[in-house]
Amino acid sequence: MTGVISTLKTNCKDCYKCLRSCPVKAIKVVAGHAQVVPERCIGDAECVRVCPQHAKVVREDLPLVKRWLARGERVVLSLAPSFAGCLPWDFETLKEALLKRKVAAVEETALGAALVAKAHRDLGAGPWLTSACPAVVKLVEIYFPHLLPYLAPVVSPMIAHGRLIKSRDENAKVVFVGPCVAKKGELLAEGLAGAVDAALTFQELTLWLADEDLPAAKASGSVKSVKWGERAARFFPVDGGQLATMGQSQWESGLAISGMRECLEFLQHFEPEEAPRFTELLACRGGCIAGPMSTAESFWQAKKRLLAYAQRPLTQPAAKMDLTRTYRPEPICDEEPTEAQLEEILKRMGKYAQEDELNCGACGYNSCREKAKAVFNGMAEVQMCIPNMRARAESLANLVLSSTPNGIIVTDEDLLVLDLNPQAEQMFSTTSGRMKNKPLELILDPVYFAQAVADNKPVQAQTSYDGLVTSQYIFGVPKHRIVVGIFTDITVQTQQKREMEELRQETVGRAQEVIQRQMRVAQEIAGLLGETTAQTKVLLTKLIQIIGRGDE
Fold first, then answer.
1. Would the N or C end of the chain have less CB density within 10 A of its end CB?
2. Burial classification of residue 445, based on how many CB atoms lie within 10 Å of its CB (0-12 exposed, 13-18 middle, 19 or more buried)
3. How far apart are CA 74 and CA 388, in angstroms?
């Protein structure tokens, strides 16, 4: 399945839904992103079907087909018989629309199905597991290689029809169209490559024809009785259809099983001595018309339309060709951890005792030990254990709330107390148990909480409660209809600020007194200096006069 299914990392949201739905756990989680492991993938595409974020995408072959047509290549479409139930158009309408797009020819894969049914009938006594479903074939090759001798050595209808087309025109580009993703991988398989060149899904075909206003197929009347045999090859897409085409009745010489989990259960308990001659195995419950790329809105309506269409005569191909194939075992060799290694991983997952192993399946694995083995083999991460991660998150949150020096009060939008942390209990001399679902006004004025609700924006304020001074930051969480108040005790800082202000005022007052005193001293000194200077001037003047008269 190399390159058939991939993950869009930006869309992957760590929900593990793909892993929970994958019957063989072919999903590897790396850095929180679920990736398909090609060596383990059977191509049932259940992960594509269930992904709520559309993070799993299927390889698109439509651009390649369009390039062939643009180059003038002869392209022949092989239309899976399930089209009659899965698509809203009849064969003639589809054929006409595709011929307009320069497709050389459109044929029904049912022609190949008729050949496959005959090839199965010509096999020995068995018991045989049918080989038409590529997802089942891959399942046996990877996970039940010891059962390969019982897998019918016959190609699928797609490969048979591809070989039929190329027997007439070896240069033709054969393009299969159906509801199956596994077909995209099958056409590249060893020994099969070259029979079919590309595989489109019904979704790709619908996208290709999106600009056409094609008339819907007319509603069919009641389903009439059908003559079984090769003309019933169009029944291959429903469970039991291949057996019907082969003329085998269930419980006597044939058994039909559909659904991957049902197929798994059968293979796990397969006993050759007790098995019928043929066991038809289909990965999709109900058959191919329920395939992952089916565009049908209703399975039962799709089945009804297909059964009605299948009554039309089918011209049998007059061709002799090699329809045999071989298989290659591709077992997964996971290492088995020792008990000590397993216990160490379990402890990292928060599983210290057997009662801690919830086996809830939230991570995608059926048990905690199965998940631990996946961690050991690099297929999973310890952090995938949702209950453990939630417990850790709650533990850390509680640790932060209980350790913070700030008081925290949570109320609903009606200002009924939902919770208080220990610091808030101490600040307001109460307990969470006593105040739960009680009005906030019993411990403090709720005016700022009410303002945060009314204005739908945070409120910052400073208030006092019985000598306690707090700085408040209050905000609402509309999504959860709660209001959160964070209270910081600033009583000491406020007292220190008050004392500093008093000290400042006292210092300023004393400084002013000193300044005034200095001014008075300076004025007195200035006055004394002025008087002394005047006296000195008088004396010196007189002395000069006396000295001056002495010269006369």
1. C
2. exposed
3. 58
Nearest to 490 by CA among 474, 470, 473, 510: 470
3-state secondary structure of 175: strand
Helix (H/G/I), strand (E/B), else coil: 463: strand
Residue 442 sits at φ, ψ, to 5 deg, of -70, -20
β-strands 56-58, 75-79 pairing: unpaired
Please answer whether residues 274 and 282 qualify as being in contact, where contact means their C-beta atoms are separated by less than 8 angstroms.
Answer: no
Q: How many CB atoms lie within 10 A of CB 176?
A: 29
- Using H for helix, E for strand and C for coil, what is the string for 214-270? CCCCCCCCCCCCCCCCHHHHHHCCECCHHHHHHCCCECCCEEEEECHHHHHHHHHCC
Query: In this predicted structure, what is the pLDDT of residue 454?
Result: 92
Q: Quick one: pLDDT at residue 56? A: 93
**Concatenated DSSP letters of 480-527:** GTEEEEEEEE-HHHHHHHHHHHHHHHHHHHHHHHHHHHHHHHHHHHHH
DSSP assignment string, 416-435: BEEEE-HHHHHHTT--HHHH
The encoded tokens of residue 102 equal 């320069």
Task: Tell me how many degrees the CA angle 306-311-315 measures, rounded to the nearest 5.
Answer: 110
Q: Residue 114 and residue 471: Cα distance in Å, rounded? A: 83
Q: Where are the beta strands (DSSP E) in 56-187?
A: 56-58, 75-79, 105-108, 128-129, 173-178
CA distance 382 to 29: 10
pTM more than 0.90: no
By the 8 A CB rule, do 181 and 61 touch? no
Q: What confidence tier does 223 reach under pLDDT thresholds 50, 70, 90? A: very low
Contact call for residues 35 and 5 (beta carbons, < 8 A): no
Contacts of 291 (CB under 8 A, 6+ apart): 82, 86, 178, 179, 180, 181, 284
Task: Report how far Cα 255 is from the mean position of its chain's Cα atoms.
Answer: 37
Nearest to 214 by CA among 347, 94, 379: 94
State the Rg of the chain over Cα. Answer: 43
Q: Is the pLDDT of residue 251 over 50?
A: no
**pLDDT 10s digits, 408-442:** 999 999 999 998 988 998 888 888 888 988 999 99
The yes-or-no verdict on residue 511 having pLDDT over 80 is: no
176 touches 196 (CB < 8 A): yes
d(CA 201, CA 292): 9
CB atoms within 10 A of CB 258: 21
The CA–CA distances, whole Å, from 316 to 82, 208, 306, 319 equal 18, 30, 19, 9
pLDDT digits (tens, 9 = 90+) for 157-167: 999 999 999 99
Q: For the purposes of burial, counting CB atoms within 10 Å of the CB of 468, is it exposed (0-12), middle (13-18) or buried (19 or more)? A: middle
- Rounded to whole angstroms, the Cα distance separating 67 from 63 reads 6
